[in-house]
Amino acid sequence: MDIKNVRQILVPVKNLERAIHFYQVSLQLPFLFQTGNLAFFECNGIRLFLSLPEQEQFAHPSSVIYFEVDNLKESFESLMERGVTFIDEPHLIAKMGDVETWMAFFNDSEGNTHALMSEIHTS
Known about the structure:
This protein has helices spanning 16-26, 72-81; strands at 8-12, 31-35, 38-43, 46-51, 66-68, 85-86, 91-96, 99-107, 113-121. The protein has 123 residues and is of the alpha+beta class. The protein has one domain: Roll (2,3-Dihydroxybiphenyl 1,2-Dioxygenase, domain 1). The strands form 2 sheets. Strands 5, 6, 7, 8 and 9 form a 5-stranded mixed β-sheet that branches. A 4-stranded mixed β-sheet has the order 1-4-3-2, covered by helices on one side. GO terms for molecular function: lyase activity. Residues 5-119 form the VOC domain. Keywords: Lyase.
């Protein structure tokens, strides 16, 4: 068995309606559907699955999701205008040959930390 790609990511939330608003309005991800305490969004072939945790052991912030963007500065400014709270400014993470990796980390409405990332070819 070879893993081919990531298809779906669960993001635990505390308030489903507030989280749906954040991912749909602030991040502008396409809303797929909601069923009960579950909501699904499309992110270029990967489904983001928002859920109220069924057990207390799962009621904690999720892993960091890195959202790739073409222009980090423009995306950063656009999300700031929509009320997204950033932890830091866009900054250089690594330079590997002629590729620079830039990131800016932010919090969603539920306390989960995510990031915008962009890889820039310098040559």
